[in-house]
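Throughout our pipeline, every protein is held as a single compact record rather than as scattered files. This encoding replaces a full spatial description with a residue-level series of whole-number codes. The remainder of this section carries one protein's record, kept here as part of the documentation.
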Amino acid sequence: MFDLLRARPARKAAFSVLEPFVLKTSANGAGLQAGDWLQPQILGFLATLVTLIVERKCGELRTHALASAQSSVLNALTGIGPELVGEEICLLSSRRDPAFTAGSMGALAFLEALDATRPSAGELVGMEPLGTASSEAGSRTLDELWHDHVERHMRRGQFLA
């Protein structure tokens, strides 16, 4: 139970990091629905990114607390029901789905690029631009990684450019 309480600020941190990207994707993809986010690459990317941010913020969690953090953040961001999120993550992970694994690896690259845009390593703050050339280049890298691991895999193909 204490893990669930410890994870609350970490869930908020994960949400605040991902929300600007999700909002931009939703604005660019007319009529996106919750099911459009259910692609293995996208789920692997988002679930792993939430895991990395949550564990960085509050340390290792028990399985139920981590699953709760993943499902609540992904539900808030995408509208996918928490039970379905958990079921899909477990199924794809246990099958060692190649697209899910590719998304997970993309999350590692995204977090590294995210760290490069921050004032100090590991500091997960809002997505405010820093105004420097390196942070602008880092933002472009984040946008490219987001496109490669999320928008490119949308079910309806709105972002297949």
In short: The longest helix spans residues 2-28.
